[in-house]
Amino acid sequence: MKSISVLVIDGDATSRNYLTVMLRKKGYSILLASLGREGLISAWKDQPDFIILDPVLPDMPGLELVNRLRLDRRTTKVPCVALSSREDSQDMNALLSAGCNDYITKSSQALPRLMELIPRLLKGESTAAKKRGILVAFLSAKGGMGTSSLCANIAMCLGSEKIETRVAVMDLVLPIGSIADIVGYEAPLNLVTVAMQNPTHTTADFFKDNLPRVPNWHFHLLAGSPDPESAIQLGKTRAVNRLEGILTAIIESYDYIFVDLGRALSRISLPIIEMADVVVLIVGTDLSSAILTKTVWEYLKNQGIDPRRLYPLQNRAVGLEGLTKIELEQMTGMQVQLTMPYMSGNFTIANNRHEPVIAKFPNDSSTFTLKQAAIQIAELGQQSHGWR
Ligand SMILES: Nc1ncnc2c1ncn2[C@@H]1O[C@H](COP(=O)(O)OP(=O)(O)OP(=O)(O)O)[C@@H](O)[C@H]1O
Ligand SMILES: [Mg+2]
Questions:
Q1: β-bridge pairing 338-340 and 134-140
Q2: How far apart are CA 214 and CA 220, in angstroms?
Q3: Which of 18, 47, 201, 356 gets the highest tally of CB atoms within 10 A of its CB?
């Protein structure tokens, strides 16, 4: 019987020799390349069953190598694993997204891991960490600051700017959510009905196929609790413990997940803030909002929230008076990223008609601000993803 062939693409002779000896012991036959270009030629000509590559090569970036392997029909499906001397999560995410099946760091654990992976990948099992969307948490230190309206409108801007991107919004404000009302959603599926279902049903695939897409809003919505009675049911049946699991499943099936946490720093919100790639903290312009925000931010920092993930957004929800951006920054010690202008009654008009602000008032300066917020939050989310 023909033995299974493994192509090793690695610029380092010691690594190549070591892998050759170890893989031969297991009965694999070996093909070797010390350059990316040689590796590509061998992969296409010799058709190995498996490819191991060091992403740091003398002649081409590992990412280019993986892209070229995946784009050619001869190697598009051949399992390939990156074996790197660097532990670089940005590099790793890029290689995995390009179609590399797994990423292993060269260490004493690398060989056993590799030996375990080869047969599994040859059988067609997927092994790499699951792809995960970017989680954006919206919260405020005080109620009525426009948190829900901004969460829905900024998510909408992102969904409409990047139409190929799947955006989901999840309303976690208890005991009663408000995003359904803002966007005009009335169907029965919501946080409570989902949490009551058997957990084996509410998988990533379930959310991928079943979260309703809201007309005109360019996102999929998991509406919040429709009334306090339902929220109490959540608590009574302990289904409230399932909310984190539901969020994790949604993260696996969407590119961006915007979560409205409202003003509560509750038992459920803290782990979500810790998990979030971006924490959007909505601050008003009044003194009490600034003081409460400072307290909340100090608390979150003490809990280990990385300040680089914070996106403070000042919202002039109540009028033109109040603190300026600079005063707010001095009081809270945060750097405000953007100020949302006061829209007088217009924001409420858009909300009451269940229309996105940018659709109802395309020429208003707030439209520009919302679009800018969407772009900045998406960029920060992508960077933040790389820091993990
Ligand atoms: N920049 C703005 N200009 C004018 N009105 C605004 C602005 N931002 C928000 N509003 C209005 O403020 C009100 C409260 O907004 P929203 O419900 O989004 O706040 P919230 O922080 O989510 O409140 P809650 O604490 O009840 O959850 C809404 O009527 C909204 O239209
Ligand atoms: Mg709200």
A1: unpaired
A2: 6
A3: 356
Residue 318 C-alpha to ligand 1 middle, in angstroms? 8
- Given a contact cutoff of 8 angstroms between Cβ atoms, the answer to whether 191 and 232 are in contact is no
Q: Could you tell me the pTM of the whole model?
A: 0.73
Render pLDDT for 137-166 as a digit per residue (tens, 0 to 9).
Answer: 999 999 999 999 999 999 999 999 888 889
Task: Report the b/e string of 40-74 with b at 16+ CB within 10 A.
Answer: bebbeeeebbbbbbbbbbeeeebbebbbbbeeeee
CA 228 – CA 103 distance, rounded (Å): 46
d(CA 184, CA 212): 12
Are 346 and 369 in contact by the 8 Å Cβ rule? The answer is no
Q: Rg of the Cα trace of the chain?
A: 25
Tokens 């959007």 belong to which residue?
A: 280
Q: Residue 131 pLDDT more than 70?
A: no
Q: Is the pLDDT of residue 295 over 70?
A: yes
The one-letter amino acid at 313 = L
Cα–Cα distances (Å) from 4 to 28, 34, 49, 71, in that order, read 5, 20, 6, 23
Closest by CA position to 316, among listed 342, 296, 286 = 342
Number of other residues whose CB lies within 10 A of the CB of residue 126:
10
Residue nearest ligand 1's atom 30 by CA: 348
The alpha carbon of 178 and the centre of ligand 2 are apart by a number of angstroms equal to 6
Identify the residues whose C-beta falls under 6 Å from ligand 1.
140, 143-149, 173, 178, 262-263, 315-317, 340, 342-343, 347-348, 351
Token pair, residue 277, equals 């790639």
